[in-house]
Amino acid sequence: MFAGWHLDVGSRQLTGPEGGLVELTGGEFDLLVALVTHPQRVLTRDQLLDWTRGRDAGPYDRTIDVQLSRLRRKLNDDPKAPAIIRTVRGGGYLFAPRVEETRT
């Protein structure tokens, strides 16, 4: 769980704070899992590409940027002042919320 959201890795589902399911593409889900498993840590685009695409991307692949943009929108993360996924200029991306692991 993070910031009221519940990510169920086993069933590949994201539930919003109000309890509704949020549709994610496979790439968006994999990206969110990579971010959630490394909270409060700056992750480079190369790391995210490795973890989500197995490094089958070219050096100018903008897939991560597009998926992050879509993911931010689905998480209702204000693009002008994101609170969940922050861009670290010259570094990469930081998943800001505290992550709480729950067992069901």
Please, could you describe this protein's structure?
This protein is of the alpha+beta class and 104 residues long. The protein has 3 helices and 6 strands, in the order E-E-E-H-E-H-H-E-E. It has helices spanning 26-36, 45-53, 63-74, and strands at residues 6-8, 13-15, 21-22, 42-43, 85-88, 92-95. It is globular.
Q: Tell me roughly what share of residues is in helical segments.
A: 25-40%
Q: If you compute it from the alpha carbons, what radius of gyration comes out, rounded to the nearest whole angstrom? A: 13 Å
Classify the secondary structure makeup into a structural class: alpha+beta
Strand order of the largest sheet: 1-2-3
How many beta-strand runs? 6
Based on the structure, what is the oligomeric state of the protein chains? single chain
Order of helices and strands: EEEHEHHEE
Can you count the helices?
Answer: 3
pLDDT < 50 runs, ≥5 residues: none
Strand content: 15-25%
